[in-house]
Amino acid sequence: MSGITAPADTPRGEARDGVRVAHRQHWGWWILVAFVVLCTAALVKMLLTNDNLQWHVVGEYLFTRRILQGLLTTLALTVLAMVLGTLLGVLTAVMRLSPIRVLSSVAWAYTWFFRGTPLLVQIIFWYNLAALFPTIDIGIPLTGPVLFSADANTVITPFVAAMLGLALNEGAYMSEIVRGGILSVDQGQSEAGAALGMRGGRIMRRIVLPQAMRVIVPPTGNQAIGMLKSTALVSVTSTAELLYTTQQVYNQTFQTIPLLIVASLWYLVVTSVLSVIQYYIERRYARGGRRELPPTPWQRFQRGVANVRGRM
């Protein structure tokens, strides 16, 4: 009689009924584990014993008012740029898939330009927009009267320039993410909606986009985390975000490394929070799929406690 074997779709080392299947470990794995443990221990020792890191200075500035104000500006830029970029990305993706040649061509040109030029260049361009357009005039294009006119330096503040640069660049990437999610939905879903008498816009809102969210959410979460870190680029426009505020402080105190550690710690904290939010949003939109949802950290903790109690 042969031993217990796990089904083909069961993770390696586990059986479907919870029976643990033993596998012989290769000796090379033990060497790799020992090397990783030694490197980790050396890194931890360096972080704890290197006096040049000045952890007491890090603790002194970690919750200062200036740093927290810079953090709030960073969060505001991240949220505004992601919201505007996502809305613009959805609109551009729908235009790109439109059968109307003018709309699809304009959407393609927008995506091509903003994906093809560096984000830093775009931010600097918006910051210096007044050199190209001293005044901003809004009205009917070409023939219509001017309805609104204002000085460009008054309207395009450093914060607005940073937000425009981040949002327009993000919209180009989000358009490709949304377009890929829409194309992942079977064409028969749209045909079924049309057979029920639904119009194209309603089919997109009620049928296509909800199903496409399974494909859209994971890369969107990665884009949000990338956006948080991209806000550091707007320091070139003197926007008082986290990195620029940190630079102002260490230019006065000459404690460069500790202040950079402060900024890095806050980026890591916010990135970790965003990763947790992304994890649970992905679980929500993965419901009803073919794959079984993995347990949450809290569910794993509960199972661990139950296993310990069962052995007692």
UniProtKB/TrEMBL annotation:
GO terms for cellular component: ATP-binding cassette (ABC) transporter complex. It is a multi-pass membrane protein. Gene3D superfamilies: MetI-like. Its main location: membrane. SUPFAM superfamilies: MetI-like. GO terms for biological process: amino acid transport. Keywords: Amino-acid transport, Cell membrane, Membrane, Transmembrane, Transmembrane helix, Transport. The keyword DNA damage does not apply. The keyword Chaperone does not apply. Residues 71-278 form the ABC transmembrane type-1 domain. GO terms for molecular function: transmembrane transporter activity. Pfam families: BPD_transp_1. It is found in: Cell membrane. The chain crosses the membrane at residues 27-48, 68-94, 106-127, 257-281. Belongs to the binding-protein-dependent transport system permease family. NCBIfam families: HEQRo_perm_3TM. This is Amino acid ABC transporter permease. It comes from Actinomadura logoneensis.
